[in-house]
Each structure stands twice: as C-alpha cells, then as structure tokens.
Amino acid sequence: MPLTFDDLLLRARALAAGGRRAILGIAGGPGAGKTTLAERLVDALNGDGPPWAAHVPMDGFHLADAELDRLGRRDRKGAPDTFDAAGYAALLRRLREEAGEESGEVVYAPGFERVLEQPLAGAIPVPPAARLVVTEGNYLLLERGSWTRVRACLDEVWFCEVDEEERVRRLVARHERFGKDHATATAWVLGTDQRNADLIATTRDRADLVVPPDALPTFHAPA
C-alpha cells in the first residue's frame, strides 16, 4: 500500500516510544519539502496534548555572509562548505545527551531568517520535555568532512523525493518571494542550487525511508 502521512506519524511516534529522546532527520534537495514535512509532523504530534516534539532545522548553521565573503564562498551559498557542519553535529550530540525533565536545561538552537538570509543565534528553544527532535536539511546523509558526524546522531533519516520540475518551480518561487527577480532566481536555481541538488541526490540510498510526494502533507511554502 502507498505510504501515507499517517504512516509517517506512526513511525515518528515509535522512535520516541522508549522514553528517551530520539532525533529524526529529514533530508532531501532544495525545494523537496523537508521543512513542510517537519513542520506538519511536529504540529500533528503536538496536537493531542502537551508539546513533546521540537523542530530544529539545519539552516541555522549557515555561515554568515560576512564570513562567506572572507572565505570567497558567497557566490555558492548553500554548498556543503558554507555551513558549520561541526557545530551542527555538536548541537545534535548535545540534544541527545541533555534530554529529560531531570536535566532542567533548555537547549537553544540557531534559526535562519529568510528575508535577511542570515542565521539567528539562540532562536529555537528545545525544552527538556521534548522527546522527539525533528531536524531537517540538505546534507544529513553526506559522507564528507564534518558532515560524517551528523548521521551517527540521528535515529533515522528520511529522504524527501519530489518531481524535479516541481522542485525547481518551488525554488524559483521561493527566491522571488524573498527579493530576487525571475531571471536572477532562475539562474541561481539552475546553477548553485542544482549543483547542490545533484550532490544530495547521491545520498538518497543511505536513507532509512524514502518519502514519496504523495505522502507529503499539502505543500504551502517551499522548503
């Protein structure tokens, strides 16, 4: 039978069934629907009682534009070496180690401001009671450099799959919504974004589960 969103909810619940904190990763190319799936999962899991799931995106570990300028990498922002991969892995380890009501510690994760296109420190609180953390990003399954530390911190990784034409359409619309004209948005999507998407596609077979488009909730905003 085809995989459904309800199936994904059951699988996510099962990850945290043992009482310890579990971390679910959602990977996929730019525009594949990672953020939308993560947000809908967390909303649904928290909808039947006290919140116990948290959403921590990888995007908060983008290097700031000033640092990308210093490194000469701003023209390919979004590539693997334009993130603080070691810092992301360290946060995931901390989320796993500092779990449970007895710790009494809120772990703060960085967020990402789409309008400014800049990371924001301490923007996402993860309370001790969070038994499931859903994290999503492009390079969760990448076996390169510090990214290799990420997979070991995750209980499962799901890979979002979407029609390539639809993925490109979403990305162009997202770039336009945040200030790029159509020509500039299209050039970025077919250049920098596409090179990243091709790399991410090579990691698909390392996922625990491939999520087909039909299993994704209604798509309202590019992810």
Description:
The structure is a single chain. By secondary structure, this protein is α/β, with parallel strands linked by helices. It has a single domain (5-208), classed as Rossmann fold. Helices cover 36% and strands 17% of the residues. It has seven helices and seven strands; from the N terminus they run αβαβααβββαβααβ. The strands form two sheets. The protein has a five-stranded parallel β-sheet, sandwiched between helices. Strand 3 and strand 4 form a beta hairpin. Helix 6 packs across helix 7 (182-201). The longest helix has 20 residues, at 182-201. The model is unreliable at 219-223 (pLDDT under 50).
Give short descriptive properties of this protein.
single chain; 223 residues; alpha/beta; five-stranded parallel beta sheet; 7 helices; globular; disordered C terminus
